[in-house]
Structure of Anaphase-promoting complex subunit 5:
Amino acid sequence: MAVCFVTGPPDSGKTGLAHELAARLTRRAWAVFQVRNDDDARAAAEHPARRRLLVVDDADTLPALRTLLLATAGDQGGRTRVVLLARRTTVWRDRLEHGTPALYALLSASPVLELPAAEPPPPVPGPTAGDPAPPAPGRAAVLATAMLLGAEESGARRGPVPPPGEEPADENLVARALADDPRFAVRVTTGLTHRQAVHAARLLVRIMSAGPRHASADAVAAAYARVSAQLPDDADVLETFSCHPEYLTGVFMRARVAVAQRAVALLDGERSRRAAVHVALADALRNDGRYARALESVGRALRLLAVPSGDASGAGPEAAVAAARTARGALLWFRGSFEEALDDQEDVVAAYRALVADDPARYRSALAQSLMNLGSSLAELGRAQDALTASAESVALTRIASDDAPTQVRLLLAKGLWNLGKRHAELGSADDAYRYTLEAVENCRELARDDPYRYNPDLASALSYLGARLGELGRPGEAARATAEALELRRRLAEQHEGYLPFVAQTLSNLGVLNAQLGRRRLGLEREREAVAIRRRLAASNPDRRLPELAASLSNLGVTHSVLGNATQALAAEDEATGILRELATAHPERHLSGLVKSLSNLASRLAENGRTPDAVDPAEEAVAASRRLTEHGGHQHLPVLGASLTNLAGTYADVGRHGDAVSAAREAVDILDELTRAQPEKYEPELALALTNLAVALAGAGDLDAALAGARRAERLRARLAGENPERFREPAERSGDLVRSLEAAGTDQAGGEPGG
């Protein structure tokens, strides 16, 4: 922030603010210049000081201002800060920017601090004697000074404090001010007017970007909590906090629920504004896991918007309804009601397309977000190609929007990119999935570099997705490194707020699987156990939301125990997971039946490992029956689940000697996977190879060696090609297929040689 405009009416405190700022920077060995005329400007520009502050009063009347600002724009070392004081910024600022790209770039990035008119001092009761008491600290002046000191830079201090005069260029001076004055945060947030409270919240969000490494971080957090929880009963202020969550980040998001509820009460009778706050309240409730309450709030918003209103609204009724239905679609998606969510999302996309046609710059980002949401629901409903199309359009629109407002839409672009990566992964395009996810990580790194407090959660999510994409490419070492970085970030976030614990557990579970794949099985087991412990604790307090996650962690723990040869522990973990999912699927089959199918198949495998192969038949058959129920209701989207469960059942039948049943199950699995592979070969060829292998084993058991050998050779060819493309992932399966072919060839030779002799 090289330049800052400070505007306000006479006696609003502009000059006093400049004096306080100058005093603070002088104590830090800065050279401070009061620029009143051209000679002052030249002297300041020629001074050899390493860091300097130029204060220009009545900036709109200084003839040499353009020259001074051009010199500031060319200062590559960031040595110069300029404070321009004026009553307003309108015409003269536009004149400065016009026709000079360097000045336009400099000034368009410069904040404008508008000071309110001075407030009369409070009445002093009773007579006073002697000298008048010194005035109370000017809250607006303290606040404005802090903003000028670099609140927009957010660079966290690293390493020891340098001597005065040798501060690094990226120093966050607000953090330094806090470290020097532990009461600074209290001063900033005490005795604020309504409007100053909003600015205080914005400032404190920026201060906290420095993170908890600073000694006064606790003081900042306490002060911010006061600002967010004890805001005045001013409808405008409360509405601002409710509808702009950037003022309430991380640990303070829960305050948004109470703030929005107060705003709704104060806006009684103003339908459009109340509807907007109800939507904001729904978003806050969703972030807190209260989905039913959130849906009620969205319903109230839509009912308010259904009644014609005379309220002035900056967005218009179409945009307001689209925003409310966007919120409802997201809530339905989180609850697993994907078809209902799709209805809202398709209508929202159509609404935003119409709005973009009239005002593209204003609504393009909203259309991009709605397309991203639509893609997620289409993917859940098995419409993978349609989902990819929607996600790709979303990213294309966001790239266009980033040309107009790169900072505001960079996070939207990052989220669009990792969602587009997921869509490619669902279609088996692992290379494209990796490429888009890597770009998302790069975008999030840039955002987090500027504002770690705000964007580290998104960087952690992007890294977690990158780990998944690298795992799909058969690069578990790189996947583990990306996932470990995500885990480190999420652990730090969870230290600040327990709301990040579910993400810690998810990342631990992913890392446990990757470590097991890398042969670091003991470490993988430790990660899985920690994930289960966290999710067990979370499920105890919020079972509706967290029990499915506990079941997933238990399944992963069972797999890791199985790899380590701990058959008993593996069975116990999977048995508990199956029990949880059986109850959940009974209550909400549309949300949990597919998870139960996978757990039942895993349970069959764990029983076989414990020497209880006959007992494995029942869960394997139950998994197939549940898969058929899914396909009856969901159609084509659940065929992969049915194919996998049939493959598993075929292997189980073969193990207990039911070779005819094994052949029937395996043939059906091959037919299903053949169909899926024709549409998406990259995704389903590995599963087809497994189904062909199981069919070969079943046919051999039934005595049809010729058919068994034909199926085994087809699986061998398929896996050999896959191993050529990705040896790290498919070399071992290819070798096993080769061994099976040779074994069947030998068995056929023995059978042929023995026929003459009977």
